[in-house]
């Protein structure tokens, strides 16, 4: 198998280091300096199984190869630029690994797929990554075409799901209930369930989402929000971390996409959305 990973961030480095055990991997990064470091040192991945070093080919140019399986591992707001770059690239499949819903509209390749990443990762440096919290990668075709093959392992369980859009919606709605509030309050996920005032806000937001999006919210009972906060109690949400570091957030692609999908006002979620936008 020939795999191309676009984006040398947390998810891209973890995925590239596992895929290197299954085939030939090219990682496409934005900065020449990162490409050079990756060529020289490979990717060091720390996980509960120990430390591994994966040797990959690193470049700043997307290869053109009809046999390659491309995984886009940038943040959702970089997707527009990447899809423009991909317009003239041949590939067997192109899989977008972003949170949120924006890529539903962007990927027009007949073999476009989406992956919902349920593991956790953070990047220590351009060549060192930590695979924190084992979790699945759920992959499915967006337009009924083929999907990339990845062998499922204990470290990286891979699930194929024909209803990938439902999986994406579920994750986006869970992110809506957790990410903006934790980012505004600068609290860890667990505080949403231990602080009664914050849980009241989550309950109100969840009830409004159920009224606006009954079909999509069938997969997202309040219990699921509670359990995710409990499971990730000690974690800071990705939006919380982005705001804390003064970085761009994925508010548009996660919350903005949900707000734009329905004519219902969703007042609680909208206020949080406006507050995150105001921080720009
Ligand atoms: N990290 C996590 O635990 C999880 C993340 N996700 C989702 O996965 C996606 C990726 O997240 P994550 O890996 O954490 O993000 P990061 O910010 O760590 O990585 C994004 C990478 O994309 C690179 N990039 C941006 N534009 C380009 C480009 N034009 N060409 C090549 N590379 C580019 C950035 O390069 P540079 O650094 O040089 O700017 C950066 O290295 C997000 O949608 C996130 O929500 C989902 C589940 C868990
Ligand atoms: C941990 C979780 C599920 C919180 O919504 C997440 O995906 C994130 O932080 O982006």
UniProtKB/TrEMBL annotation:
GO MF terms, alphabetically ordered: 2-dehydropantoate 2-reductase activity; NADP binding
Example of a GO cellular component annotation carried by this entry: cytoplasm
Example GO BP: pantothenate biosynthetic process
Keywords: NADP, Oxidoreductase, Pantothenate biosynthesis
Listed Gene3D superfamilies: N-(1-d-carboxylethyl)-l-norvaline Dehydrogenase, domain 2, NAD(P)-binding Rossmann-like Domain
Catalytic activity: (R)-pantoate + NADP(+) = 2-dehydropantoate + NADPH + H(+)
Ketopantoate reductase C-terminal domain mapped to chain residues: 164-278
Known pathway: Cofactor biosynthesis; (R)-pantothenate biosynthesis; (R)-pantoate from 3-methyl-2-oxobutanoate: step 2/2
Keyword Metal-binding: no
E.C. code: 1.1.1.169
Enzyme class (EC, first level): oxidoreductase
TM annotation in the entry: none
Domain (Ketopantoate reductase N-terminal): residue spans on this chain: 4-143
NCBIfam families attached to this UniProt entry: apbA_panE (TIGR00745)
Function summary: Catalyzes the NADPH-dependent reduction of ketopantoate into pantoic acid.
Family: Belongs to the ketopantoate reductase family.
Protein name: 2-dehydropantoate 2-reductase
């Amino acid at each position: 198998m020939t795999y191309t990973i676009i984006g040398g961030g947390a998810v891209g480095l973890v995925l590239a280091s596992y895929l290197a055990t299954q085939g030939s991997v090219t990682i496409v990064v934005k900065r020449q300096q990162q490409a050079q470091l990756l060529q020289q040192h490979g990717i060091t991945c720390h996980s509960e199984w120990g430390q591994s070093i994966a040797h990959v080919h690193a470049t700043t140019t997307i290869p053109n190869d009809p046999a390659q399986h491309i995984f886009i591992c940038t943040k959702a707001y970089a997707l527009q630029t990447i899809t423009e770059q991909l317009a003239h690239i041949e590939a067997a499949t192109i899989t977008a690994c972003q949170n949120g819903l924006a890529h539903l509209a962007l990927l027009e390749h007949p073999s476009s797929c989406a992956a919902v990443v349920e593991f956790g990762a953070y990047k220590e440096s351009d060549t060192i990554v930590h695979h924190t919290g084992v979790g699945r990668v759920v992959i499915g075709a967006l337009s009924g075409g083929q999907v990339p093959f990845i062998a499922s392992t204990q470290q990286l369980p891979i699930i194929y799901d024909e209803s990938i859009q439902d999986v994406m919606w579920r994750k986006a709605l869970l992110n809506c209930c957790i990410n903006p509030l934790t980012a505004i309050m600068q609290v860890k996920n667990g505080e949403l369930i231990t602080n009664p005032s914050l849980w009241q806000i989550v309950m109100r937001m969840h009830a409004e989402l159920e009224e606006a999006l009954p079909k999509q919210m069938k997969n997202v009972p309040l219990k699921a929000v509670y359990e995710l906060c409990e499971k990730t109690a000690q974690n800071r949400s990705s939006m919380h971390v982005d705001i804390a570091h003064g970085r761009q957030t994925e508010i548009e692609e996660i919350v903005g996409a949900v707000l734009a999908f329905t004519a219902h006002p969703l007042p609680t979620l909208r206020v949080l959305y406006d507050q995150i936008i105001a921080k720009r």
